[in-house]
């Protein structure tokens, strides 16, 4: 391998054609290249393809670029060149990025902002910053205020011509500041001002300034074809006018010479709206946008409004009417008519009368003020159930006022995307379009305002970026919301929490599923009916307080209503022992409790499932029952087959002969009913979970004792086997499950009834003979119907 010097390489490439000129810029040699004839292409190709080439075996070019002699450009593959040592000391030329200004302006305007109406928010924020700067500087330089009047913002519109004028009495701009701030895209005068203030030792910092990106002014071109900025700084004797158009790549600055357009101090923006956006010039539209976005700006905002004054004026009679009335009644003739007219006039009206309540000390704000603020901000007519006003400091600083509404939204809107949280940055409204960023969906009913000075917003201030700061804010807001709700539950007026639970109880239960981190805050808010509180719901705290000393767990049963839960065979033994049982009658209750798992170190236990431990096991007695009824259980299991997983002796029954318990990891009757109702239910899992049922028998019940005797004497007796089937079906219904064949169950019941009632109120007859008799009396008709049912039942058994 031979090395080729820089000068040799330059000599080779010096004669290349003009189409290779741009390529040589990547070579570190500063020697200019000259054109080369096409005849030399082959020679250069041959030379560069040899091992003498600086490109090496892979034709790697200088500075790590590969050169292709056929098309004359370098490929960007990194490789150690043998000429690297010679080229490393060569000087590099520095270039600045160039941009097509009109295209860049179009990207800024239409990419940063998704909503046109934010232009007014941005321009009002700029005006507020100008006033803040003047107020800040006037502390040390009082002469800046001069005699130019109050610090305010005024908005005037001409709906006919589509013109909006925004005037502030702020700091204004000099000619050079116009060039620097408006002529340089993305240069923020506010950010520059804040930087200079921080560098000043005795000035401190002003946290009220809003601007930070330097592009807010250009939002005016969202709706305007032309923008004129007339500004007068107290630091300058002259007033200057900046003018620019939406699609132009340049702007003009001139001195204002029209005496009628001179202003004592500040800035006047005149927007000439596009044809399609002239609707923004309507006074009603401007009033709405100002109240939505800039209602809490710290300076007064006035709008030029048309007013009407009702007046009564005298109107002379029409001469023609006077002749008709007659000339004899002179008194009536002299009387003049009174007419009511509306006299229109224009005046400045204060728009932002409502003050930012969250900036005040909570101790100084009354309940009436909180309620009034709630009604005005969220257009509510009912007072809230509760409110909380707080300030957080530390890593993240923000102020907030939260409310619990008195009425829940409709079912269609309950878990939908809401606009209940209004986000402000330095009192300027940013957005209320959130989908879980600040509050989880199950707390979407909470309303309120959040104001922070350092939120991680994007340039358009419309999108809240996902970050650690946002997660911290969300965590603190959720905690404060729970504290507020807990305050309602602990208040002396229990009706308030009853009202809250009726409206938002499902939301709180949904939190058990979605928010595992806050289970400890959610659990004390839950309310359920119980075996000892069938009329009024109780909390889990009250349940724990009522627990017996020997009770280890919190017992519950899920059902579709309180009555069925109260009469379920599962609760018999627990009621006898005076153990309270929670009745979960809402479809979401069971899932919520299963997600909680425990409360205050007490596990939740479903009494409708197998292996229920009530803490009173008697091993000797169980052993006796097992010896006496063990084979009977096997006999019943053989008859029922795959309908049940096993047959066991129950310790939970007192008056019922049997019960059908769900498997330890299977679905309860309530859960099975819910899963069947799902449109996209899994049939395979449904069949598997159904097979985990456990048939429990009560050894002390006469029916079970009779069946045990039947097994010992005649295990193949059809009547005994039919009794097992009927017993299973009865347990299926009483345990809350749905029978697979209701008609078959009805046939069994009718057959048993016919045998029990036959001959009780009528003379004794031979049932089988009467069945096939041709008589048509009522008794024979009933007997025939009963026998037909038995025949169907027998066929079903086969």
From TrEMBL:
<dbReference type="GO" id="GO:0016887">
    <property type="term" value="F:ATP hydrolysis activity"/>
</dbReference>
<keyword id="KW-0809">Transit peptide</keyword>
<feature type="region of interest" description="Disordered">
    <location>
        <begin position="314"/>
        <end position="333"/>
    </location>
</feature>
<keyword id="KW-0547">Nucleotide-binding</keyword>
<comment type="similarity">
    <text>Belongs to the heat shock protein 90 family.</text>
</comment>
<feature type="binding site">
    <location>
        <position position="122"/>
    </location>
    <ligand>
        <name>ATP</name>
    </ligand>
</feature>
<dbReference type="GO" id="GO:0005524">
    <property type="term" value="F:ATP binding"/>
</dbReference>
<dbReference type="InterPro" id="IPR036890">
    <property type="entry name" value="HATPase_C_sf"/>
</dbReference>
<feature type="binding site">
    <location>
        <position position="168"/>
    </location>
    <ligand>
        <name>ATP</name>
    </ligand>
</feature>
<protein>
    <recommendedName>
        <fullName>Histidine kinase/HSP90-like ATPase domain-containing protein</fullName>
    </recommendedName>
</protein>
<feature type="domain" description="Histidine kinase/HSP90-like ATPase">
    <location>
        <begin position="115"/>
        <end position="277"/>
    </location>
</feature>
<dbReference type="InterPro" id="IPR019805">
    <property type="entry name" value="Heat_shock_protein_90_CS"/>
</dbReference>
<dbReference type="Pfam" id="PF00183">
    <property type="entry name" value="HSP90"/>
</dbReference>
<feature type="binding site">
    <location>
        <position position="461"/>
    </location>
    <ligand>
        <name>ATP</name>
    </ligand>
</feature>
<feature type="binding site">
    <location>
        <begin position="188"/>
        <end position="189"/>
    </location>
    <ligand>
        <name>ATP</name>
    </ligand>
</feature>
<keyword id="KW-0346">Stress response</keyword>
<dbReference type="InterPro" id="IPR003594">
    <property type="entry name" value="HATPase_dom"/>
</dbReference>
<feature type="binding site">
    <location>
        <position position="267"/>
    </location>
    <ligand>
        <name>ATP</name>
    </ligand>
</feature>
<feature type="binding site">
    <location>
        <begin position="212"/>
        <end position="217"/>
    </location>
    <ligand>
        <name>ATP</name>
    </ligand>
</feature>
<feature type="binding site">
    <location>
        <position position="173"/>
    </location>
    <ligand>
        <name>ATP</name>
    </ligand>
</feature>
<dbReference type="InterPro" id="IPR020575">
    <property type="entry name" value="Hsp90_N"/>
</dbReference>
<feature type="binding site">
    <location>
        <position position="126"/>
    </location>
    <ligand>
        <name>ATP</name>
    </ligand>
</feature>
<dbReference type="InterPro" id="IPR020568">
    <property type="entry name" value="Ribosomal_Su5_D2-typ_SF"/>
</dbReference>
<dbReference type="GO" id="GO:0005737">
    <property type="term" value="C:cytoplasm"/>
</dbReference>
<keyword id="KW-0067">ATP-binding</keyword>
<dbReference type="InterPro" id="IPR037196">
    <property type="entry name" value="HSP90_C"/>
</dbReference>
<keyword id="KW-0143">Chaperone</keyword>
<dbReference type="GO" id="GO:0140662">
    <property type="term" value="F:ATP-dependent protein folding chaperone"/>
</dbReference>
<dbReference type="Pfam" id="PF02518">
    <property type="entry name" value="HATPase_c"/>
</dbReference>
<dbReference type="GO" id="GO:0051082">
    <property type="term" value="F:unfolded protein binding"/>
</dbReference>
<dbReference type="InterPro" id="IPR001404">
    <property type="entry name" value="Hsp90_fam"/>
</dbReference>
């Amino acid at each position: 391998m031979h090395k080729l010097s820089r000068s040799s390489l330059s000599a080779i490439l010096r004669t290349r054609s003009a189409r290779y000129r741009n390529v040589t810029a990547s070579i570190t040699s500063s020697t200019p290249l000259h054109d080369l004839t096409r005849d030399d292409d082959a020679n250069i190709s041959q030379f560069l393809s040899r091992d003498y080439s600086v490109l090496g075996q892979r034709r790697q070019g200088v500075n790590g670029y590969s050169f292709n002699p056929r098309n004359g450009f370098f490929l960007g593959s990194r490789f150690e060149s043998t000429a690297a040592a010679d080229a490393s000391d060569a000087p590099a030329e520095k270039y600045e990025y160039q941009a097509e200004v009109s295209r860049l302006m179009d990207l800024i305007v239409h990419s940063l902002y998704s909503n046109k109406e934010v232009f007014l928010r941005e321009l009002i924020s700029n005006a507020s910053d100008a006033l803040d700067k003047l107020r800040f500087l006037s502390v040390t330089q009082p002469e800046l205020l001069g005699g130019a009047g109050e610090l305010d913002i005024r908005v005037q519109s001409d709906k006919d011509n589509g013109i909006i004028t925004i005037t502030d009495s702020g700091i204004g701009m000099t000619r050079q500041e116009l060039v620097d701030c408006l002529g340089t895209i993305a240069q923020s005068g506010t950010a520059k001002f804040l930087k200079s203030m921080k560098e000043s030792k005795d000035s401190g910092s002003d946290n009220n300034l809003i601007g930070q990106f330097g592009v807010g002014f250009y939002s005016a071109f969202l709706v305007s074809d032309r923008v004129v900025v007339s500004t007068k700084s107290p630091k300058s004797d002259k007033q200057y006018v900046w003018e620019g158009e939406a699609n132009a790549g340049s702007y003009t600055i001139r001195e204002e010479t029209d005496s009628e357009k001179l202003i004592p101090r500040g800035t006047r923006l005149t927007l000439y709206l596009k044809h399609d956006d002239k609707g923004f010039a309507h006074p009603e539209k401007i009033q709405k946008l100002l109240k939505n976005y800039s209602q809490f700006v710290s300076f007064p905002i006035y709008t030029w409004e048309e007013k009407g004054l009702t007046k009564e004026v005298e109107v002379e009679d029409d001469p023609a009417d006077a002749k008709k009335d007659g000339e004899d009644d002179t008194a009536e003739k002299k009387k003049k008519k009174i007419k009511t007219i509306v006299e229109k006039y224009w005046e400045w009206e204060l728009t932002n009368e409502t003050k930012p309540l969250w900036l005040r000390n909570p101790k100084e704000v009354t309940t009436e003020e909180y309620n009034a603020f709630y009604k005005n901000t969220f257009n509510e007519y009912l007072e809230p159930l509760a409110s909380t006003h707080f300030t957080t400091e530390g890593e993240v600083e923000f102020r907030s006022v939260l409310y619990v509404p008195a009425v829940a939204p409709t079912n269609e809107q309950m878990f939908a995307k809401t606009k209940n949280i209004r986000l402000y940055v330095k009192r300027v409204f940013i957005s209320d379009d959130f989908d879980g960023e600040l509050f989880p969906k199950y707390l979407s009913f909470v309303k309120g305002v959040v104001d922070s000075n350092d939120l991680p917003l994007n340039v358009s201030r419309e999108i809240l970026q996902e970050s650690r700061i946002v997660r911290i804010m969300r965590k603190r807001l959720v905690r404060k919301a729970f504290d507020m709700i807990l305050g309602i539950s602990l208040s002396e007026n229990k009706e308030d929490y009853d009202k809250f639970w009726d409206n938002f109880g499902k939301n709180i239960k949904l939190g058990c599923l979605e928010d595992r981190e806050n289970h400890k805050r959610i659990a004390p808010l839950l309310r359920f009916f119980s075996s000892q509180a069938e009329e009024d719901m109780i909390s889990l705290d009250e349940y724990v307080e009522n627990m017996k000393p020997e009770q280890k767990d919190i017992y519950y049963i899920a059902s579709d209503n309180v009555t069925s839960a109260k009469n379920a065979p599962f609760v018999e033994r627990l009621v006898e022992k005076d153990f309270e049982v929670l009745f979960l009658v809402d479809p979401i209750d069971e899932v919520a409790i299963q997600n909680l798992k425990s409360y205050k170190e007490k596990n939740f236990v479903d009494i409708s499932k197998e292996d229920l431990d009530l803490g009173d096991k008697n091993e000797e007695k169980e052993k006796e029952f097992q010896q006496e009824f063990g084979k009977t259980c096997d006999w019943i299991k053989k008859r029922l087959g795959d309908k049940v997983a096993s047959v066991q002796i129950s310790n939970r029954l007192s008056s019922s002969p049997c019960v059908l318990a769900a498997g330890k990891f299977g679905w309860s009757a309530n859960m099975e009913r819910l899963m069947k109702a799902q449109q996209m239910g899994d049939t395979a899992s449904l069949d598997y979970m159904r097979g985990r049922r456990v048939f429990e028998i009560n050894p002390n019940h006469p029916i079970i004792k009779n069946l045990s005797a039947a097994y010992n004497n005649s295990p193949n007796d059809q009547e005994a086997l039919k009794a097992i089937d009927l017993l299973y079906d009865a347990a299926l219904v009483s345990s809350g499950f749905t029978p697979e064949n209701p008609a078959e169950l009805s046939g069994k019941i009718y057959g048993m009834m016919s045998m029990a009632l036959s001959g009780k109120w009528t003379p004794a007859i031979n049932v089988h003979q009467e069945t096939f008799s041709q008589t048509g009396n009522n008794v024979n008709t009933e007997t025939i119907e009963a026998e037909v049912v038995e025949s169907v039942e027998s066929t079903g058994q086969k």
